[in-house]
Amino acid sequence: MVRKKKYKPNTRTELPSKGFVKAFREKALVAARKYLRIHGLDPSFIDTLSKKQQDYMTRFLVDVPRFRVEKGYRVPRPLLNFASSELHHFLRKNYYKDPDIGLTYLELMVYGISFTLLIFNWAEGDPSFRFTPEQEERLRVINECLNQPSVMDDFMSMDTFLQQIMVMISKMNFRIYGFNWEFPGEFQNGMLHPTIYLNSEEAVPVRVSFRNKERPAFRVRAGSTNSAREREAQMPACFLDRDIPDADSIDFDNIPMLDIYIQSHALQRIKERMDIFSAPMRNFYTMNVFLYQPIPIRDVNGSFMFICLWPGGGANVVFGYFPFVVEGTKVIVRTFIPPTFAETLDGQYLYKTLGLQKEDIKYLGMDKLSFFATVDFNEIPILKHALENTTLCNLINYFDRYKDDYPIDPKKTAMAKQFFEKKAAFDSEQNIR
Helices marked H in 58-193 — which ranges? Predict the structure, then answer.
């Protein structure tokens, strides 16, 4: 019998090579110059430093932020990889403040932090290196600038993006994810390793009654972070009044708040009808409504519903609506309906102008967003003209900007064209009779 050797973990510490340290310090100096320019400071200060002083100002080697699962919590590996990929894409592709200067968030969070930490160390009286009186005066000005609240708030952009990632990977009827930053004060293998620890909390259903039948519903909430506790979606009770007061005039600390819950049926309808988007984007658009835009409107029958808008601002791009009922102090979101259903103003217009019934809408696939992304409306003039008189034209224009991602579907276009041609011929024949 062959005896297997016992596994022994590698405990050797490998320090960064001299070539890596040299390249890191050169990039850190470039980032420091950009950082000073962005805040209106003279970047020539870097050139007044000697080689040893420059090495001192960039001696903290900082690694790219990494993701880990906090002990005692459950986070699937694919979600951990997705969060890491999304964050690194954000760091590489987005610029800090002025894009013309070209300081990416990756340069800021890796190389810029090295320079910033040494400034803070100097201000706290670090005696390990000395500067001339003129250099110390310029360091004092830089330190005062970097300690302003507005500058420190700029670092929250990445924190806000991480919150969005947590919303994207969370499932309201399964598990909610949050995170905690940790910036270690000790070196590991010669580097500082910022770490983002993900945590999770299981969704707990409550029983709600609707039409004399009990159904499960789930609290709409976002996970906890370093900068915020777990955030629960709420709506001021006064929003149910006919005349919604201006948000600036509402004392949110002293008015009744209604907790927002969502049924599993609504989540299933979101999946079916927002079919053009990935699951993370569906989660993001949905949670954006309940956390940031919980303002109700009334449908054509007078019932309440939330409107699901594209959060990018500008054009009024409507993805759909969330009908809800109020039960005590709970807002129960029942389902998700597309903007083409008869309960909406646009749907009413299509029903009256084109004579479309609910069965027609479902047959054509007009109850799904993919219809507006992949159909060539130039081939169907009667439908195009009708849509131009509704806010659905904004939805079409939105998808037109991303035609590379949503190419035209010839089969779906041909089917819709044939349907409207036959319907027009049938209506003409009925009119003759």
Answer: 77-93, 105-107, 113-123, 133-146, 149-154, 156-169
pTM score of the predicted model: 0.84
pLDDT digits (tens, 9 = 90+) for 405-415: 899 999 999 99
Residue 265 CB partners (closer than 8 Å, separation 6+)? 215, 334, 335
Work out whether the CA dihedral 351, 356, 358, 363 comes out positive or negative. Answer: negative
Judge residue 250's burial from the number of C-beta atoms within 10 Å of its C-beta, 0-12 exposed, 13-18 middle, 19 or more buried: middle
Predicted pLDDT of residue 13: 53
Q: What is the mean pLDDT of residues 234-250?
A: 72
Q: What's the order of all strands across the beta sheet hosting 195-202?
A: 66-69, 195-202, 175-182
Q: Give the Å distances, CA to CA, from 119 to 37, 146, 289.
A: 16, 9, 42
Q: What are 293-306's pLDDT values in tens digits? A: 788 899 988 899 99
C-beta atoms surrounding 309 within 10 Å: 18
pLDDT per position as a tens digit, 319-378: 999 999 998 899 999 999 999 999 999 999 999 999 899 999 999 999 999 999 999 999
Give Cα 97 to chain centroid, integer Å: 19
- H-run or E-run covering 415: helix 410-432
- Spatial separation of the C-alpha atoms in residues 308 and 316, rounded to whole Å: 10
Cα 69 to Cα 192: distance, rounded to the nearest angstrom: 19
Q: Where are the alpha helices (DSSP H) in 234-277?
A: 264-273
CB 84 within 8 A of CB 65: no
308 three-class SS: strand
